[in-house]
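DM from R.C. (forwarded with permission)

"hey, sorry to bug you on a friday — could you get me a structure for this? deadline for the figure draft is monday and I only need the backbone to look sensible"
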Amino acid sequence: MIERTDLQTIKSRMNEQRKFIQVISGPRQVGKTTLLKQALNKISIPYDYFSADLISTTNTIWISQVWENVRMKMKTQNLSDYLLVFDEIQKIDNWSEIVKKEWDSDSWNNINIKLFLCGSSRMLLQQGLTESLTGRFELINISHWSFKEMQEAFGWNVQQYIYYGAYPGAATMIEDEDRWRDYVKNTLVETSISKDILMLTRVDKPALLRQLFELGSTYSGQILSYNKILGQLFDAGNTTTLSHYLKLLDESGLLGGIEKYSENKIKVRSSSPKFQVYNNALITAQENLSFSDAVVNPDKWGRLSESAIGAHLINNCKKFKNKIALYYWRERSAEVDFVIKHGHKLIGLEVKSGAKVAKSGMMEFAKMYPKAKVMLVGTGGIDFETFLKLNPVELF
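My reply, with the result:
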């Protein structure tokens, strides 16, 4: 079992003084609970871990009962501090109001109970946090696994990572590709859409949302206007609906829409999105092209390689959202695959596989932004394996 870099952050927050509620957030099946348990095994602070998995959603008093038991334990054992961990807490109705009440009571009475919350539904967690716990919490964002982590855990090479993506739970199934596809589609994707989106948010056209996900995954790494998207979908809708559904898919860690880079904020907001999956498994699990066939298909492999770079960037930008932001750039026929922004610094990234014809966009981008760095990833530049092991923040 490897130790992800987030483990040190979680452990450090557990050991520091009580300041904020710590919330571990991220997509399904990226190992949030495992990280929590690894960190708990490395600390000396007394703790209790509770999961709401088997608790009735209407049992709203359960949180308060657990909390009061911890207070009593601290008093009878004369403990100066204690760590209380709730996993899957979003399953309890009105959980955030109850947490607010108990947390504020401890703050008022100087009871040193440190609180960690974790849940598989990032959307429901965020909803409760923004509605009731504003100013009381810090987020620890857990991203999809990196190539380096998949290589250390499963011995994968870069080709396997580009094709099979980064779900650790599915990694042992790749010898049986039909079983692997079924697991990704039904256990991961369908659960995320059904439980994290449709059960928690009003979605008037669920078929349209599913079609948008399938289309966006197929076109990962490509720019499509919302009007062009509508022309390829069977269910009626409008651009506002599609934009909202894409945001829901993004919040669930499935599919994002990268905005165009411009110093004009209006142009940024009105730009056509560049679809980008958070995990390449979301592309290949929907297709019938096997790994062995994809590797020798130059056109397909080029698109998968570019999408893998995009997934690496979008996950890191979500993780370090206060440090870096991700865009693409296009002016008329000139295009740059990705633009990373850090403060006032820019990096233009062109991704080139062996079969991909180089664009003229990089030269135009460099003329428009002479202070920006320009980098080539792939053929003639930084090789894919090296880049996928880099933290994009280090490029600056």
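R.C.: lifesaver. The first helix runs from residue 6 to 15.
me: no worries. The radius of gyration is 22 Å.
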